[in-house]
Model the fold of this input.
Amino acid sequence: MIDSYHYDITEYSAGGFGVKPIRSIREVPLTIRINGREAVTLLCTAKYPKELAVGFLKSDAFLQSPEQITALEVEEDDERIVVDVEVCHDPWKNRTVERSITSGCGKGTNFGRNVSTISRRRIGGDVRVTPQQILSLVDELHRRSTLYGATRGCHNSSLCTPEEMLLFREDIGRHNAIDMICGQCFLKDMSVDDKMVVSTGRVASEILLKVLRMGVPVLVSTAVATRFSVELARKTGITLIGNVKDDSFWVYNDPGRLIRE
Done:
């Protein structure tokens, strides 16, 4: 699948203009329909459309169990992707559609989200991780980020144990990359209470809520966290680490999962 396109552009550098070949990342709309009704349209690179669609629906509480899915079809062309998800329950029952502008990609649609209710949840999991393991995993995330290196136009997320990286996903939005991981874990019924999410990009509240809904106890990012995310992490018991550099990072919240060597 093509994930980027080649262009010749004009670059101004060192006091003059010249022609520079670049690669620009692919961006296409992906519409998710559930039982024939549109749920949302996301903007993405078109990688892993099934996992992205299912991960989004799981994250927004349309799905509680993989057994609810009766059919999953993808229609794709150069300009658009449609993922049709058929389920055996009424996913729209007792739901209200709330539209808000979030810091991520897509329509900015939140479906009946209730942060006060979600934040009452306490995350479990007994995963323990050392500072060196965190730095090593972030280093591997950077090494795998070849599409970012070519285009400078995407975010990267991964599912890890303290010892190894299990899944790596990249997309124009960090929301999409995390939803791809969520969707694969959901479809494969993978246990996540002993795992970590290691990602690029600012940790806004919607990112922390996605990780919380997945049930992953540790979230690590190369960027910083917002105040709301820090407060949610402390209320829910997520270990939240950000601003990871070559030999340093910030610990916003840790209820005992970080091994202090």
Remarks:
- Confidence is low (pLDDT under 50) at residues 99-103.
- The longest helix spans residues 174-188.
- The chain has two domains: 28-118, 131-253.
- The CA atoms of residues 11 and 195 lie 43 Å apart.
